[in-house]
Amino acid sequence: MPVPVEFQAVVLAAGKGSRMLEITSGHPKCLLPVGPKPLIWYTLRKLQITGFNEAILIVLETQKAEIQSAIERELEGNSLDIKVDYVSIAEDQEDLGTADSLRLVQERLKSDVLVVSCDLVSDVNLGGVLNLFRKHNASIASLMFYHQASEPIVVPGPKSKHKPEKDLIGIDEQTQRLVFMASVSDFESQVTLPLSLLKKHTLVKMYSTLIDSHVYVLKNWVIQYLKSERSITSLKGELIPYIVKKQLSKPQKIDEVNQSIINTKDSNDIFSFAEEDELELAIREISSFNDHNGDLKSSYNNDPIRCYAYIAPKGSIGLRVNTLPAYWSINGKIQEVWNKVSINMSLIQKSPQANIQSNQVDDKCIISDGAKLNEKTSFKNANIGTNTTVNSFSRVFNSIVMNNVMIHEKVALENCIVCDNAVIEKGSSLKNCIVGNNHLVQAESECTNELLTEDLMHF
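The chain above was modelled as a monomer; its predicted structure follows.
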């Protein structure tokens, strides 16, 4: 009988990228290019470096073949060494939430679970949050980042104000217990904390600048509870805040004198899933260990449900690439942070399989396999995707050009994103624009701050 692994990794990659449909409409979010690699590569690389030999990857059935092909290319090129088990969501179920996605793989999960989003780019060692989980035999441990200030950037597309989402997160500074979690938008001007929370956790610090990385370590019983409580659809929005709140409660006591021979225990009560091992409780009872000081209460206040937050060290790189500004920002600095987020993998800026005839390609450019840069072209700080062709007398400055794009003669691109299979005809000039998937830009077009796509109905 095989020995079960301590943790199983689940990567959530079935999201449609609803906050940046300008570039994800018709394109898997997890395959968006970030520097020389698809977005999903950074998550899989992180798991590999952490010590995982395999991961369950949840994807949409309609995108599975494309995602699998992209990952296999990375495996064949030896930039990844991790087994990927694909689980697909059928087309008629594509609106499932993150909690729904976990239910799909519930029967495969025999150990505690590390859940990671496909859109994380970070240099943080996941061992920190895993060790915090181990140390306290936690129900949940979550990875948080400090908000990372960045210089103002001009994001391609129509001008708009991007208002980032903010959370209110309460953490006991003495124990690292995560005791409060809610969206700032849930409150108007005041936040009321339960008195029972403040009595139990006397050193609570409230944060409004922490970023939830969507990295969660979950006890296996949480997965079993999720299966029984089918009304919960979201991990971050529903499941995590609910379990954090339940820490303040206690299991219902049954009067043994008047106890019925009929089992009155609610099978869906969360405490019926969170029961602790009797031997572990006995060891804790005779141990001198206590997780807190300042009172005579038992360690962990005898809470069977315990949630924790691991805050990454200040200065860490941690970004969720789930909005257009975030995507543009990480691409702008990927070369600067490459050694940290790739864990010292060499950066190949110009693929040996690219046909580069231009002699004006600066050292900030990334040129992918099969790209053809004809003579008398100019490139500055440009990311040119696989099998993309740029014809003579064209220039591409500070832009992302994805895969299979055709750029004809005398085209000027500045501060633009051009998505897969687009065609830009002769003499066009685009500045601060987004060109959608499969879009044809007519010859001699002059556009500034525009979204050029056939799929306007999505926006």
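The first helix runs from residue 21 to 24.
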